[in-house]
Amino acid sequence: MNSSRITGTGTFIPSLKKENADFLEDEFLNNDGSTFSSDNDVIIEKFKAITGITERRYAKDEYTTSDLAFFAAQKAIEDANLHKEELDYIIVAHNFGDVKQGTIQGDMLPSIATRVKYKLEIENPNCVAYDILFGCPGWIEGVIQAQAFIKAGIAKKCLVIGAETLSRVIDKYDRDSMIYSDGAGACIVEKTEESDSGILSHATQTFAKDEAYFLHYGGSYKQEEDQNVRYIKMFGRKIYEFAITNVPAAMKAALEKSGLEIDDVKKILIHQANEKMDEAIIKRFYRLYKKPVPKGVMPMSIHKLGNSSVATVPTLLDLVLKGKIENQQLNKGDVIMLASVGAGMNINAIVYRV
Protein backbone atom coordinates (compact mmCIF):
# COMPACT_ATOMS: atom_id res chain seq x y z
CA MET A 1 0.00 0.00 0.00
CA ASN A 2 1.23 3.49 -0.82
CA SER A 3 2.57 5.42 2.12
CA SER A 4 4.31 8.77 2.39
CA ARG A 5 7.19 10.48 4.11
CA ILE A 6 8.49 14.00 4.55
CA THR A 7 11.50 14.47 2.28
CA GLY A 8 12.21 18.16 2.85
CA THR A 9 11.36 20.95 5.27
CA GLY A 10 11.77 24.72 5.30
CA THR A 11 10.85 27.68 7.46
CA PHE A 12 10.66 31.42 7.28
CA ILE A 13 11.21 33.14 10.62
CA PRO A 14 10.60 36.90 10.30
CA SER A 15 13.46 39.17 11.28
CA LEU A 16 11.47 41.71 13.32
CA LYS A 17 11.76 40.80 16.99
CA LYS A 18 9.35 42.10 19.63
CA GLU A 19 10.37 41.43 23.22
CA ASN A 20 8.07 41.40 26.24
CA ALA A 21 9.54 44.69 27.45
CA ASP A 22 8.24 46.34 24.28
CA PHE A 23 4.70 46.02 25.70
CA LEU A 24 5.42 47.96 28.91
CA GLU A 25 3.85 51.18 27.61
CA ASP A 26 0.82 49.50 25.99
CA GLU A 27 -2.70 49.96 27.33
CA PHE A 28 -4.24 46.60 28.25
CA LEU A 29 -7.94 46.39 29.09
CA ASN A 30 -10.44 43.82 30.32
CA ASN A 31 -13.05 42.60 27.83
CA ASP A 32 -15.54 45.13 29.25
CA GLY A 33 -13.14 47.99 28.62
CA SER A 34 -12.12 48.44 32.25
CA THR A 35 -8.48 48.84 33.26
CA PHE A 36 -6.42 46.22 35.09
CA SER A 37 -5.51 46.79 38.73
CA SER A 38 -1.97 45.55 38.05
CA ASP A 39 0.75 47.49 36.26
CA ASN A 40 2.04 46.24 32.92
CA ASP A 41 5.26 44.84 34.35
CA VAL A 42 3.20 42.53 36.59
CA ILE A 43 0.84 41.57 33.73
CA ILE A 44 3.80 40.78 31.46
CA GLU A 45 5.62 38.74 34.13
CA LYS A 46 2.50 36.63 34.74
CA PHE A 47 2.09 36.23 30.99
CA LYS A 48 5.65 34.95 30.65
CA ALA A 49 5.22 32.53 33.55
CA ILE A 50 2.17 30.96 31.92
CA THR A 51 3.04 31.01 28.22
CA GLY A 52 6.84 30.80 28.37
CA ILE A 53 7.08 33.55 25.75
CA THR A 54 9.88 36.09 26.11
CA GLU A 55 9.81 37.39 22.54
CA ARG A 56 8.04 36.85 19.22
CA ARG A 57 8.61 37.61 15.54
CA TYR A 58 6.62 39.92 13.27
CA ALA A 59 6.76 40.13 9.47
CA LYS A 60 8.15 43.22 7.79
CA ASP A 61 5.48 45.65 6.59
CA GLU A 62 6.01 44.75 2.93
CA TYR A 63 5.41 41.02 3.46
CA THR A 64 2.08 39.20 3.64
CA THR A 65 1.16 35.62 4.55
CA SER A 66 1.61 34.41 0.97
CA ASP A 67 5.13 35.90 0.91
CA LEU A 68 6.10 34.06 4.08
CA ALA A 69 4.57 30.85 2.67
CA PHE A 70 6.56 31.27 -0.54
CA PHE A 71 9.85 31.77 1.32
CA ALA A 72 9.31 28.62 3.39
CA ALA A 73 8.20 26.67 0.30
CA GLN A 74 11.39 27.54 -1.57
CA LYS A 75 13.49 26.13 1.26
CA ALA A 76 11.43 22.92 1.53
CA ILE A 77 11.65 22.28 -2.24
CA GLU A 78 15.41 22.83 -2.15
CA ASP A 79 15.79 20.62 0.93
CA ALA A 80 13.90 17.79 -0.83
CA ASN A 81 16.03 18.20 -3.96
CA LEU A 82 12.79 18.33 -5.92
CA HIS A 83 11.94 20.01 -9.22
CA LYS A 84 8.99 22.30 -8.56
CA GLU A 85 7.15 21.21 -11.74
CA GLU A 86 6.86 17.70 -10.27
CA LEU A 87 4.49 18.84 -7.53
CA ASP A 88 0.98 17.40 -7.70
CA TYR A 89 -0.52 19.54 -4.92
CA ILE A 90 0.20 22.73 -3.05
CA ILE A 91 -1.79 22.83 0.18
CA VAL A 92 -1.58 25.99 2.28
CA ALA A 93 -2.98 26.19 5.80
CA HIS A 94 -3.74 29.66 7.16
CA ASN A 95 -6.64 31.43 8.85
CA PHE A 96 -6.83 35.05 7.71
CA GLY A 97 -5.38 35.22 4.21
CA ASP A 98 -3.15 38.10 3.15
CA VAL A 99 -3.64 41.02 5.52
CA LYS A 100 -1.54 43.95 4.38
CA GLN A 101 0.04 46.08 7.08
CA GLY A 102 -2.27 48.93 8.05
CA THR A 103 -5.41 47.35 6.57
CA ILE A 104 -8.33 45.62 8.27
CA GLN A 105 -9.40 43.18 5.57
CA GLY A 106 -8.13 39.67 4.81
CA ASP A 107 -7.53 38.93 1.13
CA MET A 108 -8.09 35.35 -0.05
CA LEU A 109 -8.89 35.97 -3.71
CA PRO A 110 -7.10 34.24 -5.29
CA SER A 111 -6.26 31.62 -2.69
CA ILE A 112 -2.96 31.78 -0.80
CA ALA A 113 -1.96 28.47 -2.43
CA THR A 114 -2.54 29.93 -5.90
CA ARG A 115 -0.40 32.93 -4.95
CA VAL A 116 2.38 30.61 -3.79
CA LYS A 117 2.22 28.66 -7.04
CA TYR A 118 2.40 31.96 -8.93
CA LYS A 119 5.40 33.13 -6.90
CA LEU A 120 7.12 29.78 -7.48
CA GLU A 121 6.49 30.24 -11.21
CA ILE A 122 5.12 26.72 -11.60
CA GLU A 123 3.65 26.26 -15.07
CA ASN A 124 2.21 22.75 -14.71
CA PRO A 125 -1.62 23.09 -14.62
CA ASN A 126 -1.87 19.64 -13.04
CA CYS A 127 -0.26 21.02 -9.91
CA VAL A 128 -3.43 21.70 -7.90
CA ALA A 129 -3.29 24.53 -5.37
CA TYR A 130 -5.81 25.08 -2.59
CA ASP A 131 -6.15 26.46 0.93
CA ILE A 132 -7.22 24.76 4.13
CA LEU A 133 -8.89 26.65 6.98
CA PHE A 134 -8.63 24.44 10.05
CA GLY A 135 -7.39 26.67 12.84
CA CYS A 136 -3.96 26.03 14.32
CA PRO A 137 -4.02 22.30 13.38
CA GLY A 138 -4.25 23.28 9.68
CA TRP A 139 -0.73 22.30 8.65
CA ILE A 140 -0.96 18.86 10.26
CA GLU A 141 -4.33 18.36 8.55
CA GLY A 142 -2.74 19.38 5.25
CA VAL A 143 -0.11 16.67 5.75
CA ILE A 144 -2.88 14.16 6.50
CA GLN A 145 -4.66 15.17 3.28
CA ALA A 146 -1.43 14.83 1.30
CA GLN A 147 -1.02 11.34 2.76
CA ALA A 148 -4.59 10.50 1.68
CA PHE A 149 -3.94 11.68 -1.89
CA ILE A 150 -0.79 9.57 -2.05
CA LYS A 151 -2.46 6.47 -0.60
CA ALA A 152 -5.30 6.91 -3.11
CA GLY A 153 -2.79 6.95 -5.95
CA ILE A 154 -3.73 10.42 -7.21
CA ALA A 155 -0.53 12.17 -6.07
CA LYS A 156 3.14 11.40 -5.53
CA LYS A 157 4.56 14.72 -4.35
CA CYS A 158 2.81 17.40 -2.32
CA LEU A 159 3.93 20.72 -0.85
CA VAL A 160 2.22 21.49 2.46
CA ILE A 161 2.65 24.93 4.05
CA GLY A 162 1.48 26.60 7.23
CA ALA A 163 1.77 30.40 7.19
CA GLU A 164 0.27 33.25 9.17
CA THR A 165 0.67 36.92 10.05
CA LEU A 166 -1.28 37.07 13.30
CA SER A 167 0.29 40.42 14.20
CA ARG A 168 -2.11 41.98 11.69
CA VAL A 169 -5.32 40.67 13.33
CA ILE A 170 -4.73 41.35 17.02
CA ASP A 171 -6.40 43.89 19.30
CA LYS A 172 -3.54 45.83 20.89
CA TYR A 173 -5.69 46.47 23.97
CA ASP A 174 -6.08 42.73 24.60
CA ARG A 175 -3.23 41.25 26.68
CA ASP A 176 -3.65 37.98 24.74
CA SER A 177 -2.21 39.88 21.78
CA MET A 178 1.23 39.22 23.28
CA ILE A 179 0.87 35.51 22.46
CA TYR A 180 0.64 35.84 18.71
CA SER A 181 3.37 36.02 16.10
CA ASP A 182 4.10 35.59 12.38
CA GLY A 183 5.92 32.86 10.50
CA ALA A 184 5.76 30.02 7.99
CA GLY A 185 6.81 26.39 7.80
CA ALA A 186 6.63 23.99 4.86
CA CYS A 187 7.37 20.40 3.93
CA ILE A 188 7.39 18.08 0.94
CA VAL A 189 5.34 14.90 1.38
CA GLU A 190 6.29 12.16 -1.09
CA LYS A 191 5.25 8.62 -1.88
CA THR A 192 7.44 5.95 -0.32
CA GLU A 193 7.63 2.18 -0.68
CA GLU A 194 8.93 1.84 2.88
CA SER A 195 5.96 0.66 4.93
CA ASP A 196 7.84 0.99 8.22
CA SER A 197 8.77 4.66 7.84
CA GLY A 198 7.05 7.96 7.16
CA ILE A 199 3.47 8.60 8.28
CA LEU A 200 2.33 5.56 10.27
CA SER A 201 -1.06 6.75 11.54
CA HIS A 202 -3.12 9.80 12.41
CA ALA A 203 -6.26 10.98 14.17
CA THR A 204 -8.42 14.08 13.72
CA GLN A 205 -11.45 15.40 15.60
CA THR A 206 -13.73 18.45 15.46
CA PHE A 207 -15.68 19.54 18.54
CA ALA A 208 -18.34 22.03 17.45
CA LYS A 209 -21.06 21.92 20.05
CA ASP A 210 -20.17 23.99 23.11
CA GLU A 211 -16.63 24.48 21.82
CA ALA A 212 -17.19 25.99 18.36
CA TYR A 213 -16.60 29.61 19.36
CA PHE A 214 -13.80 29.25 21.90
CA LEU A 215 -11.75 31.13 19.28
CA HIS A 216 -13.67 33.78 17.35
CA TYR A 217 -13.72 37.28 15.94
CA GLY A 218 -14.62 40.13 18.27
CA GLY A 219 -14.43 43.90 18.65
CA SER A 220 -11.65 45.83 20.38
CA TYR A 221 -11.63 45.99 24.18
CA LYS A 222 -11.18 49.75 23.76
CA GLN A 223 -14.83 50.84 23.59
CA GLU A 224 -13.96 54.04 21.70
CA GLU A 225 -12.53 51.99 18.81
CA ASP A 226 -14.68 51.08 15.80
CA GLN A 227 -16.48 47.94 16.98
CA ASN A 228 -17.13 46.88 13.39
CA VAL A 229 -13.42 46.12 13.06
CA ARG A 230 -12.92 42.55 14.25
CA TYR A 231 -9.90 40.90 15.87
CA ILE A 232 -8.92 37.40 16.94
CA LYS A 233 -10.33 36.64 20.40
CA MET A 234 -10.27 33.59 22.60
CA PHE A 235 -11.67 32.14 25.81
CA GLY A 236 -8.30 31.12 27.20
CA ARG A 237 -9.45 29.19 30.27
CA LYS A 238 -11.98 27.18 28.27
CA ILE A 239 -9.39 26.36 25.60
CA TYR A 240 -6.93 25.23 28.27
CA GLU A 241 -9.44 22.92 29.94
CA PHE A 242 -10.60 21.57 26.58
CA ALA A 243 -7.07 20.93 25.33
CA ILE A 244 -5.66 19.13 28.35
CA THR A 245 -8.61 16.74 28.32
CA ASN A 246 -9.07 16.05 24.62
CA VAL A 247 -5.64 16.35 23.00
CA PRO A 248 -4.09 13.48 25.01
CA ALA A 249 -7.01 11.23 24.02
CA ALA A 250 -6.54 12.02 20.32
CA MET A 251 -2.80 11.40 20.60
CA LYS A 252 -3.50 8.04 22.25
CA ALA A 253 -5.93 7.15 19.42
CA ALA A 254 -3.27 7.93 16.81
CA LEU A 255 -0.61 5.93 18.66
CA GLU A 256 -2.90 2.91 19.01
CA LYS A 257 -3.59 2.97 15.27
CA SER A 258 0.17 2.80 14.63
CA GLY A 259 0.57 -0.39 16.63
CA LEU A 260 3.50 1.14 18.51
CA GLU A 261 4.03 1.53 22.24
CA ILE A 262 4.38 4.75 24.20
CA ASP A 263 8.03 3.90 24.92
CA ASP A 264 8.70 3.91 21.16
CA VAL A 265 8.00 7.65 20.96
CA LYS A 266 11.23 9.67 20.91
CA LYS A 267 9.82 13.20 20.57
CA ILE A 268 6.45 14.95 20.65
CA LEU A 269 6.22 18.13 18.57
CA ILE A 270 3.13 19.93 19.76
CA HIS A 271 1.54 23.20 18.65
CA GLN A 272 3.33 26.05 20.39
CA ALA A 273 0.31 27.69 21.98
CA ASN A 274 1.15 28.02 25.64
CA GLU A 275 4.03 26.38 27.52
CA LYS A 276 2.03 25.47 30.64
CA MET A 277 -0.81 24.04 28.53
CA ASP A 278 1.58 21.99 26.40
CA GLU A 279 3.30 20.63 29.51
CA ALA A 280 -0.09 19.68 30.98
CA ILE A 281 -1.13 17.94 27.74
CA ILE A 282 2.05 15.85 27.61
CA LYS A 283 1.79 14.99 31.31
CA ARG A 284 -1.79 13.78 30.87
CA PHE A 285 -0.85 11.84 27.73
CA TYR A 286 1.78 9.86 29.60
CA ARG A 287 -0.55 9.46 32.57
CA LEU A 288 -2.92 7.54 30.26
CA TYR A 289 -0.13 4.94 30.05
CA LYS A 290 0.83 5.28 33.73
CA LYS A 291 4.23 6.53 32.67
CA PRO A 292 6.36 9.52 33.71
CA VAL A 293 7.15 12.13 31.07
CA PRO A 294 10.61 11.37 29.61
CA LYS A 295 13.13 14.15 29.94
CA GLY A 296 13.49 16.22 26.77
CA VAL A 297 10.59 14.54 24.95
CA MET A 298 8.93 17.88 24.10
CA PRO A 299 11.06 20.35 22.09
CA MET A 300 9.85 23.95 22.40
CA SER A 301 10.30 27.08 20.28
CA ILE A 302 7.58 29.27 21.79
CA HIS A 303 10.00 31.10 24.09
CA LYS A 304 11.61 32.96 21.20
CA LEU A 305 9.04 32.63 18.40
CA GLY A 306 5.63 32.95 20.08
CA ASN A 307 2.47 31.37 18.70
CA SER A 308 2.31 31.59 14.90
CA SER A 309 -0.73 29.28 14.64
CA VAL A 310 -0.42 26.89 11.66
CA ALA A 311 3.30 27.65 11.38
CA THR A 312 4.42 26.45 14.82
CA VAL A 313 4.58 22.68 14.20
CA PRO A 314 6.29 22.75 10.76
CA THR A 315 8.73 25.37 12.05
CA LEU A 316 9.51 23.27 15.12
CA LEU A 317 9.96 20.15 12.96
CA ASP A 318 12.39 21.93 10.64
CA LEU A 319 14.40 23.35 13.53
CA VAL A 320 14.70 19.96 15.27
CA LEU A 321 15.53 18.06 12.08
CA LYS A 322 18.29 20.56 11.32
CA GLY A 323 19.73 20.56 14.83
CA LYS A 324 18.82 24.17 15.57
CA ILE A 325 17.27 23.57 19.00
CA GLU A 326 19.74 22.90 21.78
CA ASN A 327 19.88 19.31 23.06
CA GLN A 328 17.22 18.20 20.57
CA GLN A 329 18.01 15.94 17.63
CA LEU A 330 16.40 13.19 15.60
CA ASN A 331 17.95 10.16 13.94
CA LYS A 332 16.81 7.79 11.21
CA GLY A 333 14.22 5.39 12.62
CA ASP A 334 13.11 7.64 15.50
CA VAL A 335 9.37 7.76 16.11
CA ILE A 336 7.82 11.17 16.71
CA MET A 337 4.33 12.55 17.20
CA LEU A 338 2.99 15.78 15.74
CA ALA A 339 -0.06 17.19 17.52
CA SER A 340 -2.14 20.35 17.51
CA VAL A 341 -5.32 21.96 18.80
CA GLY A 342 -7.10 25.13 17.71
CA ALA A 343 -10.09 26.96 16.33
CA GLY A 344 -12.98 24.77 15.36
CA MET A 345 -12.32 23.36 17.91
CA ASN A 346 -10.07 20.98 16.02
CA ILE A 347 -7.53 18.44 17.25
CA ASN A 348 -5.18 16.21 15.28
CA ALA A 349 -2.10 14.06 15.68
CA ILE A 350 0.30 12.13 13.44
CA VAL A 351 2.63 9.28 14.35
CA TYR A 352 5.71 9.46 12.15
CA ARG A 353 8.91 7.45 11.81
CA VAL A 354 11.88 9.51 10.66
Summarize the structure.
By secondary structure, the protein is an alpha/beta fold. 28% of the residues lie in helices and 25% in strands.
What can you see in these coordinates?
The structure is a single chain. With 354 residues, the chain is an alpha/beta fold. The protein contains 8 helices and 13 strands. The protein has a 5-stranded mixed beta sheet, with helices on both faces. A 4-stranded mixed beta sheet has the order 8-13-12-11, sandwiched between helices. A two-stranded antiparallel sheet has the order 2-3. It is globular and about 60 Å long. The mean pLDDT is 95.
Estimate the global geometry from the Cα principal axes. globular
In percent terms, what proportion of residues is strand? 15-25%
- H and E order: EEHEHEHEHEEEEEHEHHHEE
Mean pLDDT: 95
* Major sheet details: 5 strands, mixed
Number of helices: 8
Task: Enumerate the strands of the largest sheet in spatial order, edge to edge or round the barrel.
Answer: 1-7-6-4-5
* Rg on CA atoms, Å: 20 Å
Annotation, overall tally of beta strands:
13
Helix content: 25-40%
Task: State the end-to-end distance.
Answer: 19 Å
Secondary-structure-based class equals: alpha/beta
As residue ranges, the low-confidence spans are none
